[in-house]
Amino acid sequence: MFSDPIKNIAQFDIQDGMKVVDIGAGSGFYSLESGKKVGPRGMVYAVDVQRDLLDKVKNSAGLLGIHNIETVWGNAEKIGGTKLRESIADRTILSNVLFQIEAKDRDNLALELKRITKSGGKLMVIDWEAGSALGPRTLVPSMIAGAIFAKAGFALEKEFDAGDHHYGLIFKRP
Q1: For residue 47, what are the contacts with CB-CB under 8 A and spacing of at least 6?
Q2: Rounded CA gap, 96 and 140, in Å?
Q3: Is this model's pTM higher than 0.90 or not?
Q4: Could you tell me if 139 and 128 are in contact, meaning their C-beta atoms sit under 8 angstroms apart?
Q5: How far is CA 166 from each of CA 8, 27, 97, 137, 161, rounded to the nearest angstrom?
Q6: C-alpha 142, offset from chain centre
Q7: pLDDT tens figures, 100-144
Q8: Number of structural domains, the chain?
Q9: φ, ψ for residue 107 (rounded to 5)?
Q10: Three-state SS for 117?
Q11: Which pLDDT tens digits describe the chain residue by residue (174 residues)?
Q12: What CATH code is carried by the domain that includes residue 118?
């Protein structure tokens, strides 16, 4: 099975009233599912560098009656680039983004995610598994992903099966 946002979100313990940040929100699968989980008291921030994708997320949310998603045009490769305040997120999601980040920018990405994630909050990283015939040419194996986020101060909490072509990692911010 391909990566399933509903199944993957179930691994992440998102609860009513939480604030979730979806970095590289793309078409919004994780944002929309998170919006359902956090309920009307919670908030989801869908962050992407492509404004047209953010418009699609906003439109999809409206059609589904989900009114707790705020779209943010930002760049997580720069510290402060998400434009979100420090320690805003109970949960931060990075799905199918890491492989797109140049090696020189990965440390800044990890530091920006640490900056926006609360102490005790969690980060879920989902990316392409090495050896997938469907995956992109540039991959970031799970072991390297773990090292990038450990260097930024995250502690690996668990690994999970994120689909036939993806790995899943959940980190905790001390």
Answers
A1: 21, 22, 23, 24, 25, 71, 72, 73, 74, 76, 82, 84
A2: 10
A3: yes
A4: yes
A5: 11, 18, 12, 14, 7
A6: 15
A7: 999 999 999 999 999 999 999 999 999 998 776 677 778 899 999
A8: 1
A9: -65, -40
A10: strand
A11: 567 889 999 999 999 999 999 999 999 999 999 999 999 999 999 999 999 999 999 999 999 999 999 999 999 999 999 999 999 999 999 999 999 999 999 999 999 999 999 999 999 999 998 776 677 778 899 999 999 999 999 999 999 999 889 999 999 999
A12: 3.40.50.150
Q: Is 125 helix (H, G, I), strand (E, B) or coil?
A: strand
Provide the token pair at 27: 């078409």
**DSSP state letters, 6-34:** HHHHHTTT--TT-EEEEET-TT-HHHHHH
With tokens 């392409």, the residue in question is: 128
Q: Collapsing DSSP states into helix, strand and coil, what is residue 122? A: strand
The counts of H helices and E strands in the chain are 5, 7
Query: CA dihedral defined by 137, 153, 45, 89, rounded to 10 degrees?
Result: 160
> Whole domain around residue 158: which residue ranges?
5-172
